[in-house]
Structures are given as C-alpha cells and as structure tokens.
C-alpha cells in the first residue's frame, strides 16, 4: 500500500476569493475524485486543521495499492483539473509518499 499526504497553505486571496472560499472549493474538488479515479482507494481531505507546523490550511490523505496506481492518479485528467486550480490558490505545498 502507498500513502500520499499533501498539506497546503493558502494564499490570502486568489481568483477573486478568500483563502477560506478557495479551500472549500479545493475540498469539494478533491472529495469528488474517488468516484472518478478507480486507482484511488481512500481519500480524506480536511480544512479543519487545528495544529500544524508550519501552518497548513488544507490536508489531503490518500491511499493506493501501488506506486504505479499513485502515478496513474497523478496524471489522471480529473486530478490534473484539481492541480490547475490548486496551483493558482496556494502559497505553499508539502507532500510525502510512503509505503506501509
């Protein structure tokens, strides 16, 4: 199994919206992916981050059967739609991939 965790700090404003508004859009977009990408086994996304160092406003936890499935997810057109939006509204991104 492969875990993939991503944490974002939002821009204060972007695309004419506040950080909170963009975080909600991100959460909604990411939450829709499990029904669209078969390789995606588990997806949990939250904007209710109560402790993080450094500051994080959106966190994503996903699980895949293999590194190949993670790669399929990364290049999937539905995931790339999320990436296009996220790249416009985030100030910082941290990510980790691991096996378990």
Characterize this entry briefly:
The chain has helices at residues 19-31, 67-75, 77-89, and strands at 2-10, 13-14, 17-18, 42-46, 58-64, 90-99. The protein has 100 residues and is of the alpha+beta class.
Account of the protein in words:
By secondary structure, this protein is of the alpha+beta class. It has one domain: Alpha-Beta Plaits. The protein has three helices and six strands; from the N terminus they run βββαββααβ. It has helices spanning 19-31, 67-75, 77-89, and strands at 2-10, 13-14, 17-18, 42-46, 58-64, 90-99. The strands form two sheets. Strands 4-5-1-6 form a four-stranded antiparallel β-sheet. Strands 2-3 form a two-stranded antiparallel ribbon. α1 packs antiparallel against α3. It is globular and about 35 Å long.
What are the defining features of this structure?
globular, 35% helix, two-stranded antiparallel sheet, 100 residues, Alpha-Beta Plaits
Number of separate domains: 1
Strand order in the largest sheet = 4-5-1-6
CATH class bucket: Alpha Beta
The succession of helices and strands, N to C, reads EEEHEEHHE
- Based on Cα principal axes, name the global outline: globular
Q: How many DSSP E strands? A: 6
- Compute the separation of the termini in Å: 5 Å
Instruction: State mean pLDDT (0 to 100 scale).
Output: 98
Query: Considering DSSP H and I runs of 4 or more, what fraction of the residues is helical?
Result: 25-40%
Q: How many DSSP H or I helices?
A: 3
CATH architecture: 2-Layer Sandwich
Unreliable stretches = none
């Amino acid at each position: 199994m492969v875990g993939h965790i991503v944490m974002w700090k939002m821009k204060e404003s972007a695309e004419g919206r506040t950080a909170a508004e963009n975080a909600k859009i991100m959460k909604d977009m990411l939450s829709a992916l499990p029904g669209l990408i078969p390789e995606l086994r588990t997806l949990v996304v939250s904007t209710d981050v109560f402790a993080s160092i450094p500051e994080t406003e959106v966190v994503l936890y996903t699980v895949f059967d293999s590194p190949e499935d993670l790669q399929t997810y990364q290049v999937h057109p539905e995931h790339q739609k999320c990436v296009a939006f996220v790249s416009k509204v985030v100030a910082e991104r941290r990510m980790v991939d691991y096996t378990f």
